[in-house]
Description:
Elements (H helix, E strand, L loop, with lengths): L1 E4 L15 E4 L11 E4 L2 E10 L9 E7 L4
Parallel strand pairs: 1-5
Antiparallel strand pairs: 1-2, 3-4, 4-5
Amino acid sequence: MQIFYLAARSSNIPKAPVKDALWFATYPLIPRLGDCLFHDGVYYKVERVFLYENTAPGWCADLEVSYYGRR
């Protein structure tokens, strides 16, 4: 999966990462809306999921995430 984090959305939240991020990950199941992912010491919440028909090797989904501060 290809995962996008857009820092501009979280600009008013303290401790949120200030740079956009893009990374690839493999999960046994595609995360759902509202699920949390942990990457580089930060929790992210899945905001949008884009599924693709997997006809060739590569990713089968794009995930758009936002910062999720632990409380």
